[in-house]
Sequence to fold (1060 residues):
Amino acid sequence: MGDVVEEDVIRHLYVHVPFCARKCGYCAFYSEAGEGALVSRYVEALVRELELVAGDLRPRTVFFGGGTPSLLTLGQWERILKSMDRLGLLGAAEWTVECNPATVSPDKAKLLRDWGVNRVSMGAQSFDESLLERLGRVHSRAMIYKSFDVLRAAGFENVNVDLMFAIPGQTLETWRATLGEALALGSEHLSCYEVIYEEDTPLFEQWKGGMARVDEDLACAMYDELLGAAAAGGFQQYEVANFARHLAGGSAEVPDRACRHNVNCWRGGSFYGLGPSAAGYVRGARTRNRANTTLYCEELERGRRAIESSEELGPLARAGEIAAFGLRMTAGWPLEQFRQRTGFDLPGEWREEMRRMIALGYGELNGERFHLTREGLRFADWAGAEFLRS
Amino acid sequence: MENSPSECPSRRFCVEPVHSRGGRAIPFYTQQTPPLFAVLAHGMACVAFWRIRTTELPFRTALSTVFCSDRELHMDAAHIRNFSIIAHIDHGKTTLSDRLLHRTGTVTTREMEDQLLDSMDLERERGITIKAHPVTMSYTARNGETYELNLIDTPGHVDFSYEVSRSLSACEGALLIIDAAQGVEAQTVANVHLATKQKLAIVPVINKIDLPHANIPATKAQMEDILAIPGDNAILASAKEGIGIDDILEAIVHRIPPPAPTGAVSMQALGFDSYFDTYKGVVTHVRVFNGELRPGMLVKLLHSGKTVEIKEVGSFNPKPYVREKLETGETGYMTANIKSPKDVKMGDTITDARNPSPVLPGFKEIHPMVFSGLYPINTADYEHLKAALGKLQLNDSAFVYQPESSVALGFGFRCGFLGLLHLEIVQERLRREYNMDIIATYPSVIYRVVMTDGKVKEIDNPAFLPEPNYIEKVEEPMVFSLVICPNEYIGDMMALIAEKRGVVDHTETLDPRRVMLTSTMPLGEILIDFHDRIKSITRGFGSMDYEHAGYQASDMVKLDMLVNGESVDAFSCIVHRSKAEGRGRALAAKLKEVIPRQQYQVAIQAAIGGKVVARESVSALRKDVTAKCYGGDISRKRKLLEKQKEGKKRMKSFGSVNIPQEAFIEVLKT
Fold:
């Protein structure tokens, strides 16, 4: 049990760009205000890090997240893209760059598209001006429309729109309106998150300071509204918070416009994570880079990766983790695929947990696949925890 | 330990005890070394050797005092006085005791501090004495005669009234301290009752006369009206300022009678307290009533039935020191081969095993009155808790415990206490001295259940209350309570007593300001917050005391708390029918607050028999999922989930409902 055939080269790459024009109130990701000199230094360090892992990397998916990757200048992007070209890292089937609606220029969009970026994830968050302000976003609703047009004009045919719900002050009506406007954009992908109050964010402080939180019933109603509207808008839900179109026609367990990069993460696949604070998962070992950009740069300037911590789980714990996170997807786990990936038999090792979930109506075993039901997905954290093994 | 002479001006001599590293004083003398008087007889050459330190007195005077002390050691009963100090809390008992010890040169200022440091923090914090210590003092009276004064301290709380009366029965007299500003309080009355029952000579002392609010005439008037003690008998004093101390000492000598032999055929002594010494085993505090108690004697403990050989006798100054013997009227300690404090019943009569004398009057078995389950919060601490309880019991024979288990709380101990204060003290000591994290179940008294078949069961744990159809009647313990409060609060006070199912038997005007309410109340009702409520109603001016008053039939029922239909034993309690619903409602509301939401609705019910009297519900959790989760989060997220899962593991499951340990603590705290 637990024997896994590892990949010969790693097929997925995540790059963290830790700069933002302004820190959003809800965001706990590592980022800092980008000052010219530090950003340039970061770009050089990143190139160095790409060089260090390139030999073990033939990416099928690339994801530039942040932070605000679109904040990098044309020149900085060129430096990165040319290096990737030199290192043979271009040509991914899916290459996503996260954009903030305020930072997408036609030039930049065109540059990215020309080099092979084929997917943009746009952090719209809301179409309601007052809520955008509450969230501390730098953009307006007009900018969302404008950026979307810019992206389409540049030739992007796979665009994701990020939305947030259960924002303090948001009503079911404003959420419904935002959903309607987002769907009307006609994007291929939709990610909708309930606001998380993470420690060390201004939002968390506001909440602790007594700001009313959207209550659970309203949050649930908003989620129901989302499920209904997304389905009506032609989206297929494939993860707790992710919806995509299936353009090939017919039906699929995972729609073809799903973010393949993220699907790989949820399914416990390997990926390199580069850039400050980035997490990677390579052949069973999780690593995390130093979060401080200066320290990150210093390490790479000395010619070594800036790995701050790493962790390797035992086979069963690893399988439990893979089971837990894979179940966030509506497709759940094809039993055979799980066996190949982890070396463990899902119904063999987790018989009792699966039985209990099925009894509660939270899980279903359909032929060769175990997945959570629509109701079960609402308790995906609980279900996931049940599958964890220490 | 070097004292400068100026620190002990009144000191005649002192023999320094040698201190062990652990800090406990071990007498310098042991049975292997000759006793003090023998050494003295050998002449002055030995004096230096024995480290007898003189004060600033010239050498010649020092010499005479040495011989004088030699005489003291052969004290006849006519020169012995045994007395206690009784007082309401905070009326100045401890300060006066310290003054007396100081004035008689028994301890120096420095030692007094050491002494205080040695005693339990809790005693000082709460201003009460928990353990009684006898102390032997030597006092040369104005008539030139030297007397041996034995101060037998008494615990200062109503919970320990039997211990008080036991200590009093070792005395011929008592100093009654009354605060000149506060006047007679409830405990003053109760203590005077106890002392009068023992036929003790009472020496009233009006203390704190230096206070600006002191009202001596009013205090005297109260003494006469309430206690029937002539006000003019009172000595005016301020222990704090050192006023009246000599008058008190003189009064002890002249107003308290010397001990008289009982006329029994052999040695008779009363064991009135004990403590445990690692080296010596159980050290029993004794008062010799007849004959002599000497090492080597074979004695019988009449109530416990044990026969033991005396290993050592001695007195306290206030540290223990060995003596050759204890004679009629003298007070001190004895050790024998007694390993467990349970083998010595407090109040037992000790007599010559070969030629036994009859028992001394007044013995009562001590019975715990209040019971509560103590459980370690961390189940792995069970053995630690067991060891800690064992150690506590060594010095507190009134405290009893036995193992029990609860579905909700796991393995723990059913513990019996003299009263609620005693319970609190034990809990607090477990926390402080043994670092135990414990949870205590709702305290219960002992109910007497008369079964339909005529058998009588004593129930101190709601879990064991028989089904109602087997019960003929339930009797609950009652108390006579004594409440003294300012006039303006009498209405609120009577309402409180009624709320506590009490009946006011008697209302008495004490003075233009205050009244005394005598009432009969169930013990179970005063356990929880009666004293605190009195204090809050009267803004601190009220006081209360009580004595046990037997059992009375009462309509008691078992209140069960059900969580999704399952009874949670830790929350069950025996309550009066009239209060069951209210308590049930309060408990249900509290449980609703502390039980976390689950994936399904949780019903909380309070039920008597099968009948539900209160109901609450915890609505179902509608979701348990974090929307955002990507590659970078997985490790962090997994750890978070693991932590939550671990937290759930620590919860107790009732049917399908998980209740965290904190919930039990929260509820049992209220």
Remarks:
- Chain B has a mean pLDDT of 80.
